[in-house]
Amino acid sequence: MNYEETVAWIHDRIKFGIRPGLIRIDELLNRLDNPQHQLKTVHIGGTNGKGSTTTFLRCLLEEQGLQVGTFTSPYIETFNERIAINGVPIPDDDLVSLVEKIKPLVEDMDTVEELKNAVEFEILTAIMFQYFLEKEVDIVLVEVGLGGRYDCTNVITPLASAITTIGLDHIDILGDSLEEIASQKAGIIKQDVPVVIGKMDDVAFNVIKEEAESLNSPMYRYDVDFSSKYIQPDDSWGEIFNFRSSSLDLSHVTISLLGKHQVDNASVAIQLYDIVSNKLGLSTSSKDIQKGLKKAFWPGRMEKVSDEPLIVLDGAHNDHAMQVMVNNLKTEFKGQHIHAIFGALSTKDIDSMIKDLKTVPHLDLKVTAFNYPKAFTKEQYEEMGLNAYSEWQKALADSLEELTGDDLILVTGSLYFISQVRETLLGGN
Questions:
Q1: CATH number where 370 lies
Q2: pLDDT one-digit tens code per residue, 202-217
Q3: pTM of the entire structure?
């Protein structure tokens, strides 16, 4: 197989949909002699903020000289970036080699009724664990795909876990209440393994607390066991804050990701880093933490891709993320005229997301279809009474023509949409 055939085979498993449960991944990993049990890991779940938290933690650990594997989704620039070591995606040849090893196992499983039809994410998870084992990485940061309890990454006993946020998303699979969703997210908590809990409502926290206490899992809750104090935006695009915990006291920490919510994500990452460093016998210093956080970059999250005109991409892909982004717009771009271009998947609560966007002062909204199987169509937007575009390129061209002064063009919605726009504007760089 060549690289294109390899990726096509992996993508072909999408046709089996989303299939929560561990029976297939357990069997596949067992046939690989369970590489996941031979790795040191950190497990990161939550509705939003997983990717940014993973990136912050990776950069912190890299400052200690560690080889850090990361497993993230979806991809923004290249398919291979979902599996990376110190931010470098898995090489094409390694991906091909691993698929050649795993493909016969999957095809053999397809002959057994209860094991057949392993999906894309299960196969990628198996590839990831095997790759990191073969490359002898020091630690692996594993981002949950969907939910937690029945997500196929939930086959590890990590050094620490984190649940970043809880919001309503994937309600068709995880449940339509915060309690139900929190219960699914809490499924990643393991016996005696510390869990870091990000900013969330008490109703969700109480569910997580009950799970953690039943498993004797030490809890570190944001604004209780560790906290941050927001100071101001950084002049060069980012945020400045102070961080406090029982063991750390950090002043004027600077991050290069924009938005107060990124302060929350960075704080969860610092607390995770402190726990993991203690378990690995690493010495932590304020200087290393400052340096690591400053390096962190996560594409498609309030990412500035052009100064003149000012164009920002943000993957606010569900209602919870949209509320966070709207709050950022109201503070970081107060008084500016904003031209927003929105494209989302039909599986999301698009009505609520658009209502949130419309609360931003001085915002003109354009909605658009884009090239993806589950993308909301021009006709569906029009059924909501909205004027819509069939192609986002036309929406962007019209916005560029309407610009005056220091206007902002914001491209937001699905991460798949953001990825397409980003590739066009930056040439995949």
A1: 3.90.190.20
A2: 999 999 999 999 999 9
A3: 0.89
